[in-house]
Design a protein that fits this description.
single chain, mainly alpha, 16 helices, 62% helix
Length: 404
């Protein structure tokens, strides 16, 4: 096997600066973490996930950049972490354990944080952390391939998976009335999976494909990140512009890349319909629309310095810690808002969410100004524990700390 594309450090070697933390990567990941909080405040606000008014549409649309950025840079971080380890096997063990840990967290701790109830018999959600966990488990095997091959496979998955849209009717006929089996739902189609006779149903929101392709592409991108700063800055910008231009071209042609043609959409203004790409499963156009600007931001961030940039990068240094804190904090904040507005904590806040909660109670829905106020207060509150934990991670780089 050709190992020239990935050369792990030998035991006892000093880690070169090229594999040390890169502030621009932490900054862009921090931006994604902040934007994520907007959508999760929205979940508890009663505001719908998109709509025909620009305010509601863009409140949802701006958060579309989160998952692609998070998954892509998770692949990049895996490559950079592997560059510090003694062997491919060490990286594979790390990815395997961390992936299993994330899947477990999604089905237990995170599920309770979303709902503040223990009604596991009716609701289990396979969300973004579940998906990242399984992708890491699969990356533990892919890690043994040359990084260029990993990247090529990842790009092929991203580019070609929407071929299924061309065979929708044939697939529906092949599946029959019961639809895809559990494995195909897990892999690509998503939906509800019954675990057992008396067991709860698992709702698969984030599927493996094409997200595995995004992580694999991010893994290969680690080679670019290790280049000298000025060279990588130019490559970041060129790649970002190319992906964004390809999105505009393919979306304008409107033949391939997303199952929802935008010209025939009568529910949204034309420009909003043009931007309304499919997230579940993430279409090629959805990924081009989000990864392109992300790479351009990464290029611009290479030259940014200052207190604000450092504060945002702090969130990007501890993404899992942030994630585990922000959901219960937002949930508690929503309970406080309900107490202030209704003089009680509305029972709706303890329903199963974020997928298909019961209808919003009359008069409950927040204004967008209240939504963004709660979002801002939560992000400010999260900064202080994240700054503390970033310091802990810097001092203690091994052991369980590395899994958060």
């Amino acid at each position: 096997m050709n190992n020239s594309s990935f050369k792990p450090a030998k035991p006892g070697d000093s880690v070169p600066s090229s594999v040390s933390r890169i502030t621009s990567v932490d900054f862009v990941r921090g931006v994604a973490m902040i934007l994520m909080a907007i959508d999760h405040v929205r979940v508890y606000s009663g505001v719908p996930a998109g709509g025909s008014t620009p305010g509601i549409f863009f409140t949802r649309w701006i958060t579309h950049f989160v998952a692609p950025t998070f998954v892509f840079l998770a692949g990049t971080s895996a490559y950079l972490h592997g560059s510090k380890l003694s062997s491919r096997g060490a990286l594979s063990r790390f990815l395997l354990v961390r992936g299993a840990w994330l899947v477990l967290l999604e089905l237990t701790v995170i599920r309770i944080c979303w709902t503040f109830n223990f009604d596991f018999s009716h609701y289990l959600l396979a969300g973004v952390i579940w998906m990242i966990g399984w992708c890491m488990i699969l990356m533990a095997a892919a890690n043994y391939l040359p990084s260029k091959v990993v990247g090529a496979i990842g790009l092929a998955i991203i580019a070609l998976h929407n071929l299924t849209d061309l065979f929708t009717q044939r697939l529906e006929q092949a599946f029959g009335n019961n639809g895809p089996n559990w494995f195909l739902k897990l892999l690509y189609f998503g939906g509800e999976v019954k675990i057992g006779g008396s067991s709860p149903s698992l709702f698969i929101l984030y599927v493996i494909l094409p997200w595995l392709g995004v992580m694999m592409a991010g893994f290969a991108f680690g080679r670019v990140v290790q280049m000298p700063p000025e060279r990588r800055r130019v490559l970041f910008l060129k790649l970002g512009v190319a992906l964004t231009a390809l999105f505009i071209l393919l979306r304008t042609v409107d033949i391939y890349g997303d199952p929802r043609p935008w010209r025939g959409d009568q529910h949204l203004p034309r420009i909003l319909s043009f931007l309304a790409t499919t997230k579940y499963p993430a279409s090629l156009l959805f990924l081009l629309m989000t990864l392109g600007p992300m790479l351009m931001l990464l290029s611009f961030a290479e030259g940014w310095r200052g207190k604000l940039q450092e504060a945002i990068a702090t969130f990007g240094r501890v993404p899992m810690f942030y994630y585990l804190l922000h959901i219960p904090l937002i949930h508690v904040a929503a309970c406080i808002v309900s107490l202030i507005r209704e003089h009680r904590v509305d029972a709706w806040l303890f329903a199963n969410r974020p997928v298909a909660p019961p209808p919003v109670p009359p008069g409950y829905t927040w204004s967008l100004s209240l939504l963004y106020l709660v979002f801002a207060l939560c992000v400010i509150a999260l900064y202080f524990p994240c700054r503390w934990f970033a310091g802990v991670k810097k001092r203690h780089k091994k052991g369980w700390i590395s899994y958060l």
